[in-house]
Amino acid sequence: MALKTVRMPQLGESVVEGTVDRWLKQEGDLVRRDEPLVEVVTDKVNAEVPSPLEGRLVRIEVTEGRTVPIGTVLAAFDVEDELESNAGAPQLDAPAAASSQRQPVPSPETSPTGQSGRERLSPAVRRLAEENRVDLSLIAGTGAAGRITRQDVLAFLARTPAEPASRPSSPVLPGEREELFRISAVRRQIAEHMVRSKHTAPHAWGMREVDMSALVAYREAHKEDFAQRHRMSLTYLPFVIQVVCDALQANPFLNSSWTEEGILLKKYINIGIAVALPDALIVPVIKDADRRGLLDLARIISDLSMRARNKSLRPEDVSNGTFTVNNTGAIGSIQGMAIINQPQAAILSTEKIVKRPVVVDDEIVIRPIMYLTLSFDHRVVDGLQAGRFMDAVQSGLEGWTPTQIRL
Hints:
Blueprint: E1 2-7, E2 17-23, E3 30-31, E4 36-41, E5 46-50, E6 55-60, E7 67-69, E8 73-79, E9 92-93, H1 115-119, H2 123-131, H3 150-159, H4 185-200, E10 203-211, H5 213-230, H6 237-250, E11 256-258, E12 263-265, E13 271-273, E14 275-276, E15 281-282, E16 285-286, H7 294-309, E17 323-326, E18 346-350, E19 354-360, E20 363-377, H8 383-398
Helix pairs in contact: 3-4, 6-7, 6-8
């Protein structure tokens, strides 16, 4: 028998930590390979993590409700054979020692970082720590050889209260007409991800008023036939995504990410679509959206949305997004500014289509109008680039004809 450990897997890009929501197996259980082992929650997905090996679960290292960095040991197994982990599965370690004595898992707030790790800090990380008066000895680095990265510092800032640590915190004591609603693991992860995004990227935004007459007329004429033939609703989203893909190809910096080494241009277009749940917001990703036909896009959107609501998304369903479309109009919004989904450079919100009086050829007419709002990372994108992108989306929607449909 050999002792092996299972670690917290990487469940999506830019994810630095995960919360153990529920153990599906208990200490002493025999676990088969690929059998569901533990439910893990991040700001992007609630996923069942399968066991990458077969053996007896001898120790659970991370209790339910605890949030730990990616790579933290979750559990220890007794196994008979040397087994390798599958791609995308939890990471396995060779036995660290012959002894089965439990070793505590350091948390990111208390793990010390050696002097050598601090000496290897990049200038950007050192400056960020100095500006926010962060004691680097309190941060466990996730980079190579324990090196502290910029994301480690931002994650620490997101978890640390603004007031000095020595100041005692006052308990929240709701009154008779108040109720303290406990924060779920996924809601806490979303909150921390949004804080990191605002800390990381200088947000700028712009808005356009779009005449949706052509698309509204086409959808009204074809939605019943489409529903009968394909057993799903014909929404505006697949049309918008095709137009957005064309605009991204013409304006590639909107489809990129900021790094300390330079701007990383993505030569593929993976569109994230925001799906609202009762207690969360999940962003599943349409891979290679620019290569998809309209019907294919409609089917993928329907499938991802259904599985997001059923909490059956897989880690690969929420990874590698390059740009996000946030369809806030579906919940009645007419105008708003979204927070960028890191590490992407921008997010586009499509608002509710509302009939409004507008001036056309010096005459007042009623047209179905939709506001488009774009939030963008001003480190990557300037106002001119954002404006050209919005021009392309606006003209693509207003000048839309059925000949533009890619099947």
